[in-house]
Amino acid sequence: MVLVDGVTGSGKTEVYLCAIERVLSEGRGAVVLVPEISLTPQTMARFRGRFGDTVAVLHSRMSQGERYDQWDLIRTGAARVVVGARSALFAPMPDIGVIVVDEEHESSYKQDQAPRYVTRDVAEWMARDLGATVILGSATPSIEALQRCEDDLRWERVEMPRRANGKPLPRIEVVDMAREFGRGNRSMFSRSLREALFEVVDKQEKAVLMLNQRGFAQFLLCRDCGFVPECPSCSTSLTYHERAGRLKCHHCGYESPVPAVCPECRSPYLKRFGAGTQRVEDELVALLADRECPVIRMDADTTSRKGDHQRLLERFAAPGAAVLLGTQMIAKGLDFDEV
Fold first, then answer.
1. What is the pTM of this model?
2. What is the overall mean pLDDT for the chain?
């Protein structure tokens, strides 16, 4: 077990590629796991650029026919490198030499439905049984992996503290929005963010904005009695989706229409609190209205159909300025030079 603890841009992917090249030269196969389906098209392009048609892909958004075709290529040995999300670990690879778990700290590697398992632990068990190597990569390794490196002699930690191109890590600026509000800024965007967006767009570059809350508003609140609509199964507040005119639970999928009045006290004063990606998208479009810059929203609502991930990322990668707005799926290893 090797934990590659490398900062963003340190060259972890090249480490994976070199390890896979060595395994392939020995006649064995490789499995590469990524935490998010949205990463699969970009990862596939890099691996196919190095290994050609010997790379197969497996993830849950594929049709049964596509999944079978890829499964058969792997089983017969025509494909010797498998790239995919969590379930790709169980691909029928005849002789696995290396298992790569990229962004190993991500919670998406934990299967929360039966049969429940942690991908890292299953990969370790499989590798021990097959005589393979497991490479875990992350810029922010999990506490469990760091502790195993301390306690278990079979685990080795390799640190990559510098970027491959020699550039420094980005400067981080924390903006106090309460202070912004006190100075008269009523926008959801700070002055710093607005100026940075204008500068990037005017240079024909790209910007990425992450907000881990889809929908239009996080919840509705009755201003008279304090009632908040909740999911009957999960006991969490329902998220307001303006375009669909629905309240949705992001845990179990429960939906209900938006009430015209409070179900408890019949008050018409239902206020929307908290911004979701739909609302931010509307505000961004208005903010950049006088500049020709597409705003691309990427969340569970805009990527529900097959091929949506790749289509949206291709729009963002097209020449010219663009702003990518999304939930956590855009913060797991995407790589665009113009950002």
1. 0.75
2. 90
